[in-house]
Amino acid sequence: MSETMSETMSETPTDPLTADAATVPDPTLAPVVVTVCTTCRQANADPEAIRPGLVLAETLNAADLPPNVTLRGTECLSACSRSCVLVIEGGEERWSYIYGDLDPAEHSADILAGIHAYAGTTDGLVPWRARPVVFRKQSVARIPPKAHPSVELGTSALTQPATSTASAAKDT
Ligand code: FES
Q1: C-beta of 79 in contact with ligand 1 (< 6 A)
Q2: 143 pairs with which residues across the strands?
Q3: Is the CB of 56 within 6 Å of ligand 1?
Q4: Domain spans in the chain, listed from the N-terminal domain onward
Q5: How many CA atoms lie within 13 Å of 137's alpha carbon, on the beta-carbon side?
């Protein structure tokens, strides 16, 4: 499945702090795992100070996460130049996303809203306009689900013009 910015969606992200029972994601949806790097810090930050990545992880841990979401912290996701970083993934059918340049003071509420939106999908593809801005603008990468059709590779692929192999829709 591809996705474009032209998808129609008029809703704004649900505020997870005020969501009523009708907007809580179905707990039977596939489990989602959010992995937050707890050692992320900005390049010139004091290495002895509390890491913003840990602050982000603790903030999300204290928040009202959907019932199908598990949060975990880990040390270094090897994307240090995009600190702070998190990964959101879940099940065989969902796209996975890596987000970076996250500031817990500025982005925590929107990240939480984005987690709620993602956890309520079966494929991980939250309509563009329903995504918080931080998830629209600060994607480092997205990874297709294992079942996603693959571009057929072979020696001929190396001789094709670059435009013919770049069929995936731009997502960020
Ligand atoms: S310290 Fe967070 S990605 Fe490396």
Answers
A1: yes
A2: 96
A3: no
A4: 21-165
A5: 8
Q: Which residue among 81, 83, 138 is best mutated to probe the pocket of ligand 1, counting the most ligand atoms within 8 A of its Cβ? A: 83
pTM of the model: 0.77
Which of 152, 55, 68, 65 minimizes the C-alpha distance to 112? 65
Task: Give 95-150 pLDDT, tens digit per residue.
Answer: 999 999 999 999 999 999 999 999 999 999 999 999 999 999 999 999 999 889 88
- Could you give the CA distance from residue 56 to residue 164 in angstroms, rounded to a whole number? 40
56 CA → ligand 1 middle, Å? 13
Q: Is 83 in the pocket of ligand 1 (CB under 6 A)?
A: yes
Do residues 6 and 125 lie in contact, with contact meaning Cβ atoms separated by under 8 Å?
no
The yes or no reply on domain 21-165 and CATH 3.30.565.10 is no
Residue that the structure tokens 């009708």 belong to: 22
